[in-house]
Amino acid sequence: MTPATEVTQATEVRALQDALAVEHAAIFGIGVAGAHLTEELRDQAQDASIAHVGRVRGWEQLVRDRGGEVPLAAPWYEVPRTPTDQASGLQLLVELEESCAVAARSVVEAAGTDGPDMRDSGSAALTDSAVRATGWRLAMRPQDPSVPVTVPWPGA
Amino acid sequence: MADLPDGIRPEGSTRNEDTAAERCHTRRVALTRRVVLSSTAKAVALLGLGTVGLGSVGLAACSGRVEDLPDDLRAALDREESLLERARATLAAHPGLSLTLLAIVADHEAHLTELRRLGGLDPLPASSGDPSLSPSPSAPSVPGSAPEAVAALAESESGASADAREACLQAQGDRAGTFASIGASEASHAFLLTSVASGAT
Q: Is ipTM strictly over 0.90?
């Protein structure tokens, strides 16, 4: 392995480890938010949680492939807001997906062009989080029609 | 800022090669990354950042030529111009959909502005205001039925999203992240339009 390759791989591992920490926190936060949702939205939150777990498994493998150490999830995370009703639960879900989008874009930017698996995975994660955030904003629309549903730069 | 994770760079830094297009930009305005959660020490290192710079967005101080741009950037510009035209034409044909379509038009204008900045091209002329009042003479045809028009635009957005993500795989430096974000934004447009078509909103 050339020194340049080593640097790239170390950068990739750190970006993946950081993104995994954000994903772990998001999975925790989705559970917190889900308790305040209607049954239909709770089902959607559960689907989102399952998708995030799948992303975690994929990124853990990419870390191992690069010889890195897989970070473990913490038993508890501080969330940016304590939801008290459905509106604040949905707002939390939007914020969680926005955080995951930021982490995913970092994965994309850290990936070398000779590692298309990582870049593709980061891009897919960014897209998934942007779409889920749009879904949660749409669910907020009946209470607040002025909420912008899409953003031009997910992850930025 | 010295202890930032490598995946996040401080405002003003760049890992791109110093291209002529970038050298001509004199004014920089940082995009921001918002990080929300905090937890373990590891997560706090990433998540406690609040707001940090992501690359830079500036206004071009010189005019490049589209013909001189890298192929991927030129293709991205073509896609954005086409999508913007289509979204504006759909809005002009179906003003009742303005709540949805104005936001999509605004997103595409932002994409196009940033792509032109990356290419060292002159900024877009200021918007004339209500795009429904000024459809381009070369605007694409739009189905007369609103659901069909929405479905057609959703298909265009979805296709452009896939193309942007494909371009991301081989793009150099910051362009990879830009293409990935544009692809994600367009996927969310397709999702929104599909939801509108199905009467979810």
A: yes
